[in-house]
Amino acid sequence: MRVWTYLRPFEYRGLDCVVEVTLTFKETISRLFVDNELMDEQSLAYSVGATTFVHPLPSSSGQTARVKSGYYNWWNIGIAVIEGDNTVYESHPGRDVHHGEELVKKMLGEDPDSAERASSKLRSMAETNQNKWRRNKYSIYADLALGLLFFLVGKFTEDLALAAIVGAGAGLGLVVAQRFVKVDLLGGFAVFGTIMLLISAGFSLGFQDDYWVQMKSTILGLFTASLFMADGLLRRGAYFGARIERYMPLPLHHDRIAVGMSLNGIIMAGANYLVTENFSEDFWLTWTTFLDLPVGMALFYSVVYWARKKPTDRVA
Which of 55, 183, 275, 301 could form a disulfide with 138 if both were Cys (CB 3.0 to 4.6 A apart)? Predict the structure, then answer.
């Protein structure tokens, strides 16, 4: 299944060329099209590792020509066209398309030459990820369903207080349902999540006003952030940090991940406040259901990158 596609068009000696890089759930696929004709296709499974794809280019100059495609930062892909020893075109001038490949090796604590060991670690990480996904996917589905339920009720009834109460009631229904099903519906924060659902339900019942429904994410977000911060600073992440690590394929510093998640919560609480105060209720509903998730995930991955353990870290 296709998740995302990058298109990088360029012209080479009068030829219209396009590099198409497609991300699926299992692999990355890179294709080179010349004048709308597929000239080369390469793929690499995530479990094997990371690479910079190199496609041969037809050349009439007598020199070997090729185009490289790869990540030049965490989220974007660039291409570089090379003729002989000279780079004749870059989609993002000055950026290194090998950056993603080297970054993965650096994260794994491997030298550039130790590709086999890095590949082995990546395969192990992929297997760990798959196992964690199988264990946690139902709780993720449940979270998404609750968010969609809140959006639909709020959108069609135009009553955010009712939507909040319905959402809180559905969340408490999951707590009851968990007693009768074997799959995990609540995730690794079952006790904490249940407490927060009760607080959220009480807030929704106590403040049945659209403005305070919008502000609930800010108020409860700051409250939760303070708990994460206290856990990170006073207990070195023994509660929240340790539980977050259960979901991650990499070992983490518990104190760092707890503090980082606290800062993440503060930023998202502030963003919710700004949207509530400066935009319409309809836009806020779209923001809280669809837009704040990718922003929060980007911040989350930044926190994980900061909190990850390196082979050179001293054991506490």
Answer: 183
- Is residue 309 classed as helix, strand or coil in its secondary structure? coil
Domain residue ranges in the chain: 2-107, 117-307
pTM, 2 dp: 0.54
What is the Cα–Cα distance from 273 to 183, expressed in whole angstroms? 36
pLDDT tens track for 74-92: 778 899 999 888 888 899 8
User: Which has the closest alpha carbon to 50: 140, 134, 118?
Assistant: 118
Higher per-residue pLDDT: 251 or 38: 38
Taking domain 2-107, whether its CATH number is 2.60.40 is answered by no
Q: Who wins on pLDDT, 164 or 85?
A: 85
Q: What is the pLDDT of residue 67?
A: 92
The pair of three-digit structure tokens given for residue 77, joined into one six-digit string: 């892909």
